[in-house]
Design brief:
CATH class of the largest domain: Alpha Beta
Largest sheet: 7 strands, mixed
Strand content: 15-25%
Number of strands: 10
Distance between the termini: 51 Å
Number of helices: 10
Number of domains: 2
CATH superfamily of the largest domain: Endonuclease Chain A
Oligomer: single chain
CATH architecture of the largest domain: 2-Layer Sandwich
CATH topology of the largest domain: Endonuclease, Chain A
Shape: globular
Length: about 300
């Protein structure tokens, strides 16, 4: 049986799956299975041909979709695959991403507690600074904004920012006053800010067309930031660059002491689901060195 899907429905579904952080290969393979939904499934070779997923990657992609609860594996010779119904596949995907998010959150909380325990067992200079909070977590928009405003307000010399770019970024920035205004006020106080954007590619070489698209999108982002928040690279102490590859963990650093770890929303990756504030000069210095290595050796300035 062939399921007929309108171009508009395919576009909407593709956008949803992109927002859910699926790769292009995963999206192509899933839509191919959904459109070609045979009751007894189809072999990987046929899926590869119809979806343009390389034969060397197709089993890995299908296994990932199976792990997310979107594809069923039929044990036969050769092995066959079929999609779940669309509503069930999307429900399973959301549940999978939510569970992944909770695991990451639990890991960060546990690591913070271990760092805190080690801190108070050691004789470090950090004890000389009175701390109301060593680590804290924030969920949902208002809590995250409050934590971030404090992070920026406490900054006296330098803020290093990691952030991500996807096709929704230009739509979201105009509504980001609560995040971008604190940067502007920090600059007014003389704080230096470096802003590193990531396009979240997986490390494989990009085509000239992809690189050109990324450069154009970055220019558009710089124009929107200048228009809405007067955040321009022409402004003293404010710099922006971008990289192609995905950053494993998004974090911002303040004054070589404070760190905010940012966890993306698995269902809406253009949003931050949770943030964790950590005071640890040693960790901040190590992350700062890593950040500056990427900034100086890999990052691209872009054209204004």
């Amino acid at each position: 049986m062939i399921i007929r899907m309108s171009d508009n429905l395919i576009d909407n579904l593709s956008e949803f799956l992109i927002n859910a952080n699926l790769s292009t290969y995963e999206i192509n393979a899933f839509i191919t299975l959904l459109k070609s939904s045979k009751y007894d499934g189809i072999p990987a070779k046929e899926i590869s041909l119809k979806s343009n997923v390389p034969s060397g990657r197709i089993y890995e992609v299908l296994d990932d979709l199976n792990d997310k609860g979107m594809v069923e594996i039929i044990e036969s010779r050769p092995k066959k695959f079929k999609s779940l119904t669309l509503n069930k596949a999307l429900e399973n995907l959301i549940q999978h991403q939510t569970a992944e998010n909770k695991r990451k959150e639990a890991f960060l909380v546990q690591q913070a507690k271990l760092i805190e325990a080690n801190l108070y067992e050691s004789e470090t200079s950090i004890k000389k600074e009175p701390l109301k909070i060593f680590w804290s977590t924030a969920f949902e928009y208002q809590s995250i904004v409050s934590l971030y405003k404090k992070f920026c307000y406490d900054s006296k010399h330098e803020i290093l920012i990691n952030s991500f770019i996807n096709e929704n970024t230009t739509k979201i920035i105009p509504y980001g006053k609560d995040i971008f205004e604190p940067y502007k006020r920090a600059l007014d106080r003389g704080v230096r800010i470096k802003y590193l954007w990531s396009f979240e590619h997986d490390g494989r070489p990009l085509s000239d067309e992809q690189e050109s698209h990324n450069a154009e999108l970055f220019v558009k982002i710089t124009q929107i930031l200048e228009e809405y928040y007067q955040l321009s690279v022409e402004r003293p102490n404010f710099e922006m660059k971008y990289i192609y590859k995905k950053t494993p963990t998004y974090y911002d650093i303040s004054d070589k002491q404070r760190i905010i770890f940012k966890l993306q929303n698995p269902v809406k990756p253009y949003q931050i689901f949770a943030s964790m504030y950590v005071m640890d000069p040693d960790l901040a210095e190590k992350l700062r060195i890593k950040y500056l290595n990427v900034w100086n050796l890999e990052a691209i300035e872009g054209d204004s």
